[in-house]
C-alpha cells in the first residue's frame, strides 16, 4: 500500500520556524521526485517546493524562496521542508506528493499525503 505521511505542522508565531517531514512507503522512493504543496481555505492548492529524484535539483515558489528549504533522505524514504521566517500568509494545510517527474502542478503528481496544518499567528 502506497503511503505518504506528513508530520511536523502546528501553530507558530510570525518569524518562527517549523520543520515538516514526509515519510513514504509502498513504492520505490528513489524513482520519484517529490513536491510540497499547500492549500488555504477557499484557495486552490499551490506549489511550494520540489526536489528531484537525487535531491541535486530543487525548485521553489517565489513566495517562499530564501525562507523554505526542501531536502530528501533516500536512505530513510523521507522528504523534509524546513520553513523559516514564517508569515501569517503561510498558513495552510501542507501536502507532500510524489511524481515520476518534477512538476509545478498538482495533476502531475501520482501520490499524495493527507496533509498537515500549519498556522502562523501575527
Outline the fold blueprint.
Elements: E1 3-7, E2 10-13, E3 18-25, E4 33-39, E5 46-51, E6 58-60, E7 68-73, E8 78-83, E9 92-99, E10 111-112, E11 116-121
Parallel strand pairs: 2-11
Antiparallel strand pairs: 1-3, 3-8, 4-5, 4-9, 5-6, 7-8, 9-10, 9-11
What does this structure look like?
With 122 residues, this protein is an all-beta fold. The protein is globular, with a radius of gyration of 13 Å. It starts with a strand and ends with a strand. The chain is built from no helices and eleven strands.
Strand content: over 45%
Largest sheet: 7 strands, mixed
| SS-derived structural category | mainly beta
Q: Between the first and last Cα atoms, what is the distance in angstroms?
A: 40 Å
Put simply, the count of helices is 0
Shape: globular
Amino acid at each position: 500500500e502506497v503511503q505518504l505521511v506528513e508530520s511536523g505542522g502546528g501553530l507558530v508565531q510570525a518569524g518562527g520556524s517549523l520543520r515538516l517531514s514526509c515519510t513514504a512507503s509502498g513504492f520505490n522512493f528513489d524513482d520519484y521526485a517529490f513536491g510540497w504543496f499547500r492549500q488555504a481555505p477557499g484557495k486552490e492548492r499551490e506549489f511550494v517546493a520540489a526536489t528531484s529524484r537525487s535531491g541535486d535539483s530543487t525548485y521553489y515558489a517565489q513566495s517562499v524562496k530564501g525562507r523554505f528549504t526542501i531536502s530528501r533522505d533516500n536512505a530513510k524514504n523521507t522528504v523534509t521542508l524546513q520553513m523559516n521566517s514564517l508569515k501569517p500568509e503561510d498558513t495552510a494545510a501542507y501536502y507532500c506528493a510524489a511524481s515520476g517527474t518534477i512538476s509545478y502542478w498538482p495533476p502531475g503528481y501520482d501520490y499524495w499525503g493527507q496533509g498537515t496544518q500549519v498556522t502562523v499567528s501575527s
